[in-house]
Design brief:
This protein has 369 residues and is of the alpha/beta class. The protein is 38% helix and 19% strand. The protein is built from 13 helices and 12 strands. It has helices at residues 65-79, 86-96, 104-124, 129-132, 153-165, 181-195, 211-220, 238-247, 261-269, 280-283, 285-299, 309-316, 360-366, and strands spanning 12-29, 34-47, 52-57, 139-144, 171-175, 200-204, 228-230, 252-254, 275-276, 325-327, 340-342, 345-347. A 5-stranded parallel sheet has the order 5-6-7-8-9. The longest helix has 21 residues, at 104-124.
Length: 369
């Protein structure tokens, strides 16, 4: 899009949300949960001008789709006939849910609306989203987060080699939180022996520890040369995270549970982390990410992504303190043309918007009645 071009005016005709359940090739096995099917809500925005938008949500818990799908349809009806303007849509969605709160399912619904509206707008001018946002198409450094759950040391080590081969990755994330610290340490040792010294390793506790455990466990792994330690305790314990951040040499990563940029501001103000990694359905979609990225830039805090690799790739190209993209292929079964990973970097395709199109046969197979 050249400086002389203007964005076309689009009028919202409909917003459709379709719930799916996808099987996971490598089930999630964390201290707080085991997940073997992955809920996905497909979002399709249609305009009176014939331009369509595509995006999706991943709300973790299948039963949450019973509430999110009607909420999204309600938002579509509320905004029907209005000009497609992502920032205004996001604000209108939040305002309409003000009395039930801005967090939880309210934020997830507003975020989904935001992401599909941005895709629609970028498609209207026939440019990738990153270009519409002021950036360019290019690769985004990624780490593979598709596995390495709470399995035996030998199983984790073998799986790590599979994950590296999925895209010549130079960084992997594995999980800790086994019954004994010794078992976590044995897994870390087996993993390092398998992948060698050059592969960056991140560790995630998935909020599985209390504060006393976190102090012991995090100090116990503080000399392993990890890229970061992620979410050892419950996500909103900023005082506890501040204590850990001050005590550890290894950078502390939080943020996938920030519900909007204000949560991130509170965490940074409390000195609760060294790194942040917002999740798109909680931070506020593309609009919320942009606001949060300004906070990260002002604080000089590296910013990584959580889930939604296709959206993540585009916004990382315009994020001042962009760090790592978390790559997972959990939504790929329903994508007609998944993004490629080459030399450990996600490649943004030169397609309009997010470049997502659905595999209709797969959608029929995984649809929820």
């Amino acid at each position: 899009m050249t400086p002389s071009q203007t964005l076309p005016s689009l009028t919202l005709k409909s917003l459709t949300a379709r719930p799916l359940l996808l099987p996971l090739k490598r089930p999630v096995v964390a201290r707080i949960a085991t997940i073997d099917v992955w809920p996905v809500i497909l979002l399709d925005m249609e305009t009176e001008e014939g331009v369509s938008g595509r995006a999706y949500l991943e709300p973790y818990v299948p039963k949450s789709m019973r509430y999110l799908v009607p909420a999204l349809h309600d938002l579509g009806e509320m905004l029907k006939g209005r000009q497609v303007a992502p920032v205004e849509f996001f604000q209108a969605a939040q305002n309409s849910l003000h009395f039930v709160g801005y967090e939880g399912l309210s934020m997830i619904a507003a975020s989904g609306l935001d992401m599909v509206a941005w895709d629609c707008l970028a498609r209207a001018v026939d440019v990738p989203l990153c270009v519409l946002l002021g950036g360019s198409v290019g690769p985004v450094p990624a780490y593979n987060s598709n596995g390495l759950w709470l399995k035996s040391p030998a199983a984790v080590a073998a799986e790590a080699l599979e994950l590296i081969a999925e895209g010549d990755f130079t960084a992997l994330k594995f999980r800790m939180g086994r019954d004994r610290l010794a078992d976590d340490l044995a897994t870390a040792a087996a993993l390092r022996d398998a992948v060698g010294p050059e592969v960056a390793l991140m560790v995630d506790f998935n909020q599985g520890l209390d504060m006393a455990e976190a102090l012991a466990r995090c100090h116990g792994i503080d000399d392993l040369g990890l890229a970061w330690i992620e979410e050892p305790v419950i996500y909103d314990d900023f005082a506890g995270y501040a204590k850990l951040t001050a005590a550890l040499k290894t950078p502390l990563q939080i943020g996938e549970n920030f519900y909007g940029p204000r949560d991130m501001y509170k965490a940074l103000e409390a000195k609760a982390c060294d790194l942040v990694m917002p999740d798109f359905m909680r931070i506020g979609g593309v609009t919320g990410w942009q606001q949060a990225a300004g906070l990260a830039a002002a604080a000089n805090i590296p910013m990584s992504t959580h889930l939604y690799p296709e959206v993540a790739a585009h916004v990382m190209r315009v994020t001042r303190t962009a760090h790592w993209l978390e790559w997972q292929d959990w939504a790929e079964p329903i994508l007609a043309e998944p993004y490629a990973v080459v030399d450990g970097a996600l490649q943004i395709p030169d397609r309009p918007g997010l470049g997502l199109e659905w595999d209709m046969a797969a959608i029929k197979r995984f649809a929820v009645d």
